[in-house]
Amino acid sequence: MKKSKLINVAVVLAITGLMPLVGSAAFASGSSGTAAVANGVLVGTVNGISFIDQDITVVPSQTSANSTTPTAVPNGIDIAGTCYATYSCMWVSANQVGGQGQFQGTNGWWGVWAQSQCTGSNAAPDSGGTWNDCASSLEDGQAISQTFYKNINYAGSSIQLTSGQYQEELTTTSGGNLNDAISSNQAS
Amino acid sequence: MREARNFRSHIFRAVTFVAVALSVLAMWPTVGAQAISKDNSKLPTEIASYAESLSGITAISNAEQILVSRCMARQGQIFYEELLRNDQISPLFSPPEPGSLAQRRKDGYGYYSVVIGEPTQGKASKEDSYIRGLSKAEQTNYERAMFGNPNDKVLTHLIDGSSVYTNSGGCFGIAYDEIFGSIENLVWSFNDLIPAINQISTLVSTKTPYAKALTAYGKCMVRRGYRVNSPEGARLYADNFYASHNINLATRAREVKVAVADYQCGASAHLNTSFETSIKSVWSVIPRHFKRELEIISTERGRAETISMSIVDGVTK
């Protein structure tokens, strides 16, 4: 039921033009993000968003210091509308509808992943066209459990999913309303 | 689709003070699988200890991997199991507690470091590379072997009133049956931990010494220029600095100031010690139905950890 429903959704979105070119909508950051080592200048851009550091040298492409599973491979929208095996997925709307993103491993800030549908009523005002504070439904398709957090760096209210679980809506959780509020996830 | 029996009561829908839970978890020691306490008044702390138990979390995760690997092999599929060590994982709840004032002065809550260092793309796992090499039809078969038919899913209500779907088929379904006994037990053991701790924390934060400490903390933070009434509020306040993608050293400096004020106000208000005092008496105000739920969570989690450790030991010995 889930798969056929999502395929239909994908078709509808593609027809209506809401879904941009396959593979470019959800985690376009994988292709459009750039990074460079710098000292006191622009150190990186992700989908047009500049990371400015004023006086330190950083290497933005390094794995997060807190990452326990450095295998994050955001690689674009799933054209079949399913949560591809070995990935966890998030959707812009409840009931696994709307723009879909997928990821692996531990990720300390979802703001690095662009999603064109994360604007207006689809996301929190601070989402800025990224998955930060945008997801409305979640699925853990990975062979490992996930904890999803409200704040950057695995902090704040959270919910857990284990392999093969999904949550159709995030408005009613013990951590309060986590709809359009998730900012990081941790594999464990 | 089946719906698990609804004897889970939907309690405490009010917004909870999650930060309190995180504070609690930071204080409790890491422990292994535990027997059910004879003294039920200790259940609140035991529930939290399960979430902090690295050996327990590791055992369950590894047991799942072992059982799924065996099952997939029986079906002619290759599964690259990922067995973890305790030092490779984090507690189910892992607040980025810097642990010292010096660390907070240096890196705040660690937000800046994560934001600036977060990779947009990482390295593919062995499992992922393998599946990517399969044809579309083979991928579908693989996914079916792993999770079963998409219609084989169970809807289970959590104790906080939210709900979760679990694919009950495939090799993971078999593994869950062996480790937990049922999908409902899986949900009790795994998904209900956070809601349970949140609800305990809510009770601890009401009409206890800890509640008074929180009030003192809030006043202290106001004096420092921040209108937040809990450590969770302080963290969220700092988190929002990065929301507009103003990622620079000025933002980090603001984060550090909040984190330092949070630390110092928490210390001056004696948040940790007052929580320890309050948690000891919280059992007396826990509603009967919630007590029963805590007993079930503790029972099922303890059993799952014991079974998992047995499975893992059978492989490693």
Describe the structure.
The complex is a heterodimer of chains A (188) and B (317). Helix content of chain A is 10%, strand content 28%. By secondary structure, chain A is mainly β. Chain A has a single domain, classed as Sandwich (Gamma-B Crystallin, domain 1). Chain B has one domain. Chain B is mainly alpha-helical and 317 residues long. Chain B starts with a strand and ends with a helix. Chain B has a 3-stranded mixed beta sheet. The chains are: A mainly beta (188), B mainly alpha (317).
Spell out the key features of this protein.
heterodimer, A: 188 residues, mainly beta, Gamma-B Crystallin, domain 1, 3-stranded antiparallel β-sheet, 12 strands, B: 317 residues, 3-stranded mixed β-sheet, 3 strands, 59% helix, disordered N terminus
Number of domains of chain A: 1
Tally the beta strands of chain B.
Answer: 3
Uncertain segments of chain B are 3-37
**How many distinct helices of chain A?**
2
**What is the CATH topology assignment of chain A?**
Gamma-B Crystallin, domain 1
Along the chain, the helix and strand elements of chain B come as: EHHHHHHHEEHHHHHHHH
| Relevant CATH superfamily of chain A | Crystallins
Radius of gyration of chain A: 16 Å
Mean pLDDT of chain B: 81
**Which structural class best describes the helix and strand composition of chain B?**
mainly alpha
Helices, strands, pairings?
The complex is a heterodimer of chains A (188) and B (317).
Chain A (H helix, E strand, L loop, with lengths): L1 H15 L12 H4 L1 E2 L2 E2 L2 E5 L2 E4 L4 E2 L29 E6 L3 E7 L33 E4 L5 E6 L3 E7 L3 E3 L16 E4 L1
Antiparallel strand pairs in A: 1-3, 2-5, 3-4, 6-7, 6-8, 8-11, 9-10, 9-12
Chain B lengths: L1 E2 L14 H10 L15 H10 L1 H21 L26 H7 L3 H7 L8 H7 L3 H12 L5 E5 L5 E5 L2 H11 L2 H9 L1 H12 L4 H15 L7 H9 L9 H20 L2 H9 L8 H29 L1
Parallel strand pairs in B: 1-2
Antiparallel strand pairs in B: 2-3
